[in-house]
Amino acid sequence: LAGTVPEEPRCTVERADASLTYSLFLQRFAFSRPVILGGITDNSAFRALCTREKLLAAFGPFPVRLSTANTFSYRKVDVPFQEYVEHLLKPQDPARLGSDTLYFFGDNNFTEWGPLFQHYVPPPFRIPGTSPAYSFGIAGSGSGVPFHWHGPGFSEVIFGRKRWFLYPPDKTPHFHPNETTLAWLQHTYPTLPAAQRPLECTLHPGEVLYFPDRWWHATLNLDTSVFISTFLG
How sure is the predictor about 1, in pLDDT bands with cuts at 50, 70 and 90? Predict the structure, then answer.
Protein backbone atom coordinates (compact mmCIF):
# COMPACT_ATOMS: atom_id res chain seq x y z
CA LEU A 1 0.00 0.00 0.00
CA ALA A 2 1.19 3.51 -0.74
CA GLY A 3 2.64 4.98 2.40
CA THR A 4 3.16 1.69 4.22
CA VAL A 5 6.62 1.75 5.78
CA PRO A 6 8.37 -1.14 7.57
CA GLU A 7 9.92 -0.50 10.95
CA GLU A 8 13.67 -0.04 11.17
CA PRO A 9 14.82 -1.87 14.33
CA ARG A 10 18.00 0.18 14.70
CA CYS A 11 17.83 2.93 17.32
CA THR A 12 20.72 5.37 17.78
CA VAL A 13 19.00 7.68 20.28
CA GLU A 14 19.90 7.09 23.91
CA ARG A 15 17.15 5.73 26.16
CA ALA A 16 16.36 6.41 29.82
CA ASP A 17 13.72 5.10 32.20
CA ALA A 18 11.83 6.37 35.22
CA SER A 19 15.00 6.32 37.31
CA LEU A 20 16.29 9.40 35.44
CA THR A 21 16.25 12.32 37.88
CA TYR A 22 15.56 15.92 36.92
CA SER A 23 19.12 16.94 37.80
CA LEU A 24 20.55 14.21 35.58
CA PHE A 25 18.15 15.19 32.77
CA LEU A 26 19.43 18.77 32.95
CA GLN A 27 23.04 17.66 33.13
CA ARG A 28 23.06 15.01 30.40
CA PHE A 29 20.31 15.85 27.91
CA ALA A 30 18.45 19.15 28.29
CA PHE A 31 20.97 21.29 26.41
CA SER A 32 23.03 18.73 24.53
CA ARG A 33 21.30 15.69 22.99
CA PRO A 34 17.96 13.93 22.54
CA VAL A 35 16.75 11.08 24.72
CA ILE A 36 13.84 8.64 24.65
CA LEU A 37 12.05 8.42 27.99
CA GLY A 38 10.11 5.31 28.92
CA GLY A 39 7.81 4.79 31.87
CA ILE A 40 7.97 8.35 33.16
CA THR A 41 4.19 8.94 32.91
CA ASP A 42 1.00 6.90 32.62
CA ASN A 43 -1.32 8.22 29.92
CA SER A 44 -3.64 5.23 29.67
CA ALA A 45 -6.62 7.44 30.62
CA PHE A 46 -5.73 9.97 27.92
CA ARG A 47 -5.21 7.17 25.39
CA ALA A 48 -8.70 5.82 26.11
CA LEU A 49 -10.13 9.21 25.10
CA CYS A 50 -8.17 9.26 21.82
CA THR A 51 -9.81 6.36 19.99
CA ARG A 52 -11.38 7.14 16.63
CA GLU A 53 -14.89 6.71 18.06
CA LYS A 54 -14.32 8.92 21.10
CA LEU A 55 -12.63 11.71 19.16
CA LEU A 56 -15.30 11.77 16.45
CA ALA A 57 -18.05 11.87 19.07
CA ALA A 58 -16.40 14.74 20.92
CA PHE A 59 -14.95 16.82 18.08
CA GLY A 60 -16.51 15.62 14.80
CA PRO A 61 -18.24 18.88 13.77
CA PHE A 62 -15.51 21.22 15.01
CA PRO A 63 -13.08 22.68 12.44
CA VAL A 64 -9.42 21.69 12.58
CA ARG A 65 -6.55 23.46 10.89
CA LEU A 66 -4.46 21.31 8.58
CA SER A 67 -0.91 22.22 7.58
CA THR A 68 1.16 21.32 4.56
CA ALA A 69 4.05 18.92 5.16
CA ASN A 70 6.88 21.06 3.85
CA THR A 71 9.63 22.91 5.69
CA PHE A 72 9.36 26.61 4.97
CA SER A 73 5.86 27.51 3.72
CA TYR A 74 3.04 26.14 5.80
CA ARG A 75 -0.25 26.48 3.94
CA LYS A 76 -3.27 26.18 6.25
CA VAL A 77 -6.64 24.65 5.43
CA ASP A 78 -9.62 24.45 7.78
CA VAL A 79 -11.97 21.45 7.55
CA PRO A 80 -14.38 19.74 9.97
CA PHE A 81 -12.56 17.15 12.07
CA GLN A 82 -14.92 14.41 10.84
CA GLU A 83 -14.11 15.22 7.21
CA TYR A 84 -10.41 14.99 7.95
CA VAL A 85 -10.74 11.60 9.67
CA GLU A 86 -13.09 10.06 7.11
CA HIS A 87 -11.66 11.46 3.86
CA LEU A 88 -8.15 12.87 4.32
CA LEU A 89 -6.57 10.56 6.89
CA LYS A 90 -4.95 8.25 4.34
CA PRO A 91 -1.54 6.69 3.69
CA GLN A 92 0.97 9.11 2.21
CA ASP A 93 1.23 9.06 -1.57
CA PRO A 94 5.00 8.81 -2.21
CA ALA A 95 4.67 10.91 -5.37
CA ARG A 96 2.99 13.90 -3.73
CA LEU A 97 4.98 16.99 -2.80
CA GLY A 98 4.92 18.39 0.71
CA SER A 99 2.95 21.43 -0.46
CA ASP A 100 0.19 19.08 -1.65
CA THR A 101 0.15 16.98 1.52
CA LEU A 102 -2.17 18.11 4.32
CA TYR A 103 -2.40 16.72 7.80
CA PHE A 104 -3.40 17.62 11.32
CA PHE A 105 -0.59 18.49 13.72
CA GLY A 106 -0.69 21.39 16.13
CA ASP A 107 -2.81 24.49 15.56
CA ASN A 108 -5.24 23.20 18.19
CA ASN A 109 -8.13 25.39 19.28
CA PHE A 110 -7.77 25.26 23.06
CA THR A 111 -11.37 26.37 23.62
CA GLU A 112 -12.51 23.13 22.00
CA TRP A 113 -9.59 20.75 22.64
CA GLY A 114 -8.68 22.02 26.10
CA PRO A 115 -10.95 19.56 27.98
CA LEU A 116 -9.15 16.65 26.28
CA PHE A 117 -5.70 18.01 27.11
CA GLN A 118 -6.65 18.26 30.79
CA HIS A 119 -6.39 14.46 30.90
CA TYR A 120 -2.85 14.38 29.46
CA VAL A 121 0.01 13.80 31.91
CA PRO A 122 3.01 15.68 30.48
CA PRO A 123 6.63 14.68 31.04
CA PRO A 124 7.79 15.84 34.48
CA PHE A 125 10.89 17.71 33.26
CA ARG A 126 11.14 21.37 32.25
CA ILE A 127 13.82 23.67 30.93
CA PRO A 128 14.33 26.62 33.30
CA GLY A 129 12.72 29.79 32.01
CA THR A 130 10.28 28.03 29.66
CA SER A 131 6.57 27.24 29.80
CA PRO A 132 4.81 24.32 28.06
CA ALA A 133 2.36 24.42 25.14
CA TYR A 134 0.61 21.36 23.69
CA SER A 135 0.41 20.34 20.05
CA PHE A 136 -1.91 17.41 19.27
CA GLY A 137 -1.92 15.56 15.99
CA ILE A 138 -3.36 12.65 14.01
CA ALA A 139 -1.77 11.48 10.78
CA GLY A 140 -1.85 8.65 8.26
CA SER A 141 0.73 5.98 7.54
CA GLY A 142 3.74 7.34 5.70
CA SER A 143 3.00 10.96 6.57
CA GLY A 144 5.34 13.20 8.51
CA VAL A 145 7.00 16.58 8.76
CA PRO A 146 10.27 17.04 6.84
CA PHE A 147 13.39 18.47 8.46
CA HIS A 148 12.94 21.66 10.47
CA TRP A 149 14.00 23.05 13.83
CA HIS A 150 12.57 25.15 16.66
CA GLY A 151 12.79 25.30 20.44
CA PRO A 152 13.09 22.30 22.75
CA GLY A 153 10.22 19.92 23.42
CA PHE A 154 8.85 16.48 24.12
CA SER A 155 6.78 14.29 21.80
CA GLU A 156 4.75 11.28 22.93
CA VAL A 157 3.12 8.62 20.77
CA ILE A 158 -0.42 7.76 21.90
CA PHE A 159 -1.36 5.32 19.09
CA GLY A 160 0.76 3.92 16.27
CA ARG A 161 4.51 4.13 15.69
CA LYS A 162 6.51 7.22 14.78
CA ARG A 163 10.04 7.23 13.36
CA TRP A 164 12.30 10.19 14.14
CA PHE A 165 15.43 11.47 12.41
CA LEU A 166 17.58 14.06 14.23
CA TYR A 167 20.68 16.14 13.52
CA PRO A 168 22.46 18.56 15.90
CA PRO A 169 22.26 22.29 15.13
CA ASP A 170 25.71 22.36 13.53
CA LYS A 171 24.87 19.61 10.99
CA THR A 172 22.31 20.79 8.46
CA PRO A 173 20.73 17.74 6.79
CA HIS A 174 20.62 17.35 3.04
CA PHE A 175 16.96 17.58 1.99
CA HIS A 176 14.59 19.40 -0.34
CA PRO A 177 12.14 21.56 1.66
CA ASN A 178 9.15 20.47 -0.45
CA GLU A 179 9.99 16.76 -0.34
CA THR A 180 8.03 14.64 2.11
CA THR A 181 9.87 12.63 4.75
CA LEU A 182 8.78 9.43 2.99
CA ALA A 183 10.35 10.58 -0.30
CA TRP A 184 13.53 11.66 1.54
CA LEU A 185 13.73 8.22 3.19
CA GLN A 186 13.34 6.47 -0.14
CA HIS A 187 15.65 8.66 -2.25
CA THR A 188 18.20 10.48 -0.08
CA TYR A 189 18.63 8.37 3.04
CA PRO A 190 20.06 5.30 1.24
CA THR A 191 22.80 7.46 -0.34
CA LEU A 192 24.11 8.84 2.97
CA PRO A 193 27.46 7.56 4.22
CA ALA A 194 27.30 6.15 7.74
CA ALA A 195 28.93 9.28 9.19
CA GLN A 196 26.26 11.52 7.64
CA ARG A 197 23.23 9.57 8.84
CA PRO A 198 21.00 11.12 11.49
CA LEU A 199 20.28 9.89 14.95
CA GLU A 200 17.10 7.89 14.55
CA CYS A 201 14.61 5.72 16.38
CA THR A 202 11.02 4.51 16.18
CA LEU A 203 8.77 5.47 19.10
CA HIS A 204 5.95 3.21 20.28
CA PRO A 205 2.88 4.16 22.34
CA GLY A 206 3.85 5.48 25.76
CA GLU A 207 7.38 6.47 24.74
CA VAL A 208 8.44 10.12 24.86
CA LEU A 209 11.22 11.74 22.84
CA TYR A 210 12.96 14.85 24.15
CA PHE A 211 14.79 17.03 21.60
CA PRO A 212 16.94 20.05 22.58
CA ASP A 213 16.75 23.57 21.21
CA ARG A 214 17.49 24.02 17.49
CA TRP A 215 18.01 20.34 16.74
CA TRP A 216 16.95 19.46 13.20
CA HIS A 217 14.30 16.74 13.13
CA ALA A 218 11.97 14.99 10.70
CA THR A 219 9.16 12.57 11.51
CA LEU A 220 7.54 9.64 9.74
CA ASN A 221 4.36 7.95 10.95
CA LEU A 222 4.64 4.23 10.27
CA ASP A 223 0.95 3.70 11.10
CA THR A 224 -2.08 5.90 11.42
CA SER A 225 -0.84 7.68 14.52
CA VAL A 226 -2.06 9.86 17.37
CA PHE A 227 0.61 11.93 19.10
CA ILE A 228 1.03 14.94 21.35
CA SER A 229 4.01 17.25 21.75
CA THR A 230 4.87 19.53 24.64
CA PHE A 231 6.81 22.52 23.27
CA LEU A 232 8.92 24.47 25.76
CA GLY A 233 8.83 28.13 24.78
Answer: very low
**Domain residue extents for the chain:** 15-232
Let me know: does 226 contact 158? Beta carbons within 8 Å: yes
| Burial class, 58, CB count within 10 angstroms (exposed 0-12 / middle 13-18 / buried 19+) | middle
Rounded CA separation 68/178 (Å): 9
Q: From the CA atom positions of the chain, what is the Rg in Å?
A: 17
Q: How far apart are CA 222 and CA 233, in angstroms?
A: 28
Q: State the amino acid at position 155 in one-letter form.
A: S
Cα distance between residue 123 and residue 148, in whole Å: 23
SS3 for 35?
strand
The pLDDT-based confidence of 2 (bands split at 50, 70, 90) is: very low
Beta carbons within 10 angstroms of residue 34's beta carbon: 19
Query: Which CATH entry fits the domain spanning 15-232: 2.30.110.10, 3.30.230.10, 3.30.930.10, 2.60.120.650?
Result: 2.60.120.650
From CA 125, how far away is CA 111, in angstroms rounded?
A: 26
Bridge partner list, 63 = 80
Going by pLDDT thresholds of 50, 70 and 90, the confidence category of residue 52 is: very high
- Asked if the model's pLDDT at residue 51 lies above 60, the reply is yes
Q: Are strands 15-16 and 35-38 parallel, antiparallel or unpaired?
A: parallel
**Are 225 and 157 spatial neighbours (Cβ–Cβ below 8 Å)?**
yes
Between CA 86 and CA 67 the distance in angstroms is: 17
Say how many C-beta atoms besides its own lie within 10 A of residue 62's C-beta.
Answer: 13
